[in-house]
Write a structure and sequence with these properties.
Number of helices: 1
Number of strands: 19
Radius of gyration: 28 Å
Strand content: over 45%
Strand order of the largest sheet: 1-14-15-18-19
Oligomer: single chain
Length: 231
């Protein structure tokens, strides 16, 4: 009798494990069908986790000091099949221009002239989580005058705004702000520009100096605006 009882218990346990295994297999198959793993997930379709931090990157190639037709090129920069040309145009008295062309050599953007600026230095920022490229273009002469912020995305190059800001050293002398800039993307694809916490930033428009931790700009309503750091 005892042997028969042990046998019945063994049969019952085996049956339960078998049923659980079928249920787990059915669940796994259902998940695979729901996700349709045969279709690759595109970067644009992936779920983004905000904020997205941008880092400074190096161009694919750079060529300096040559001529293209009527343009005296100071620098030609290639990045992701897009060409950025910084130079002066014959018979144009407005100073340095920026021209942006796609791989088909179609003009995407032409900036206004930089007037008396001695240079127009391009700096590129991007992230693995996005296809956007943010360019921070610095103007100046003996010292920096500030930067223009642009965005390249989906074949469109557009200006976000200009910041008349510069960093100051311990003696109050002007420095380039580039090495102190922080860029990130927040919800609604909005770009935010801030600065390293302890850097001294001089705002030319406001004519005052503040610490980087107390200064922030955000692209909203088609313009770059100063915001409350508490936001």
């Amino acid at each position: 009798m005892r042997v028969l009882l042990y046998f019945l218990v063994f049969i019952l346990c085996f049956s339960c494990k078998k049923n659980v295994s079928k249920a787990e297999i059915t669940k796994k198959v259902s998940i695979v069908e729901k996700n349709d793993l045969s279709q690759p997930v595109k970067k644009d379709d992936a779920i983004k986790e905000y904020p997205i931090e941008y880092v400074k990157i190096k161009p694919d190639s750079i060529k300096n000091d040559f001529r293209i037709d009527s343009i005296r090129v100071d620098q030609s920069i290639w990045i992701d099949s897009v060409q950025f040309i910084v130079g002066t145009i014959d018979d144009n008295k407005n100073g340095i221009h920026l021209l942006v062309l796609n791989k088909e050599n179609k003009l995407l953007y032409r900036s206004k002239g930089q007037q008396d600026s001695w240079y127009y230095r391009l700096n590129f920022f991007t992230s693995k989580e996005t296809d956007k490229i943010i360019t921070v273009n610095e103007t100046g002469a003996e010292e920096s005058w500030g930067v223009d912020i642009y965005e390249y995305s989906g074949g469109i190059y557009k200006e976000l705004g200009s910041l008349d800001v510069m960093a100051l050293n311990e003696y109050g002398e002007s420095l380039s702000i580039i090495q102190y800039i922080k860029i990130k993307e927040i919800k609604n694809n909005s770009i935010e520009v801030s600065f390293k916490d302890d850097v001294k930033v001089y705002e030319d428009e406001a004519e005052k100096t503040t610490l980087g931790k107390d200064l922030k700009y955000r692209y909203e309503d088609k313009k770059l605006i100063k915001i409350d750091v508490q936001n």
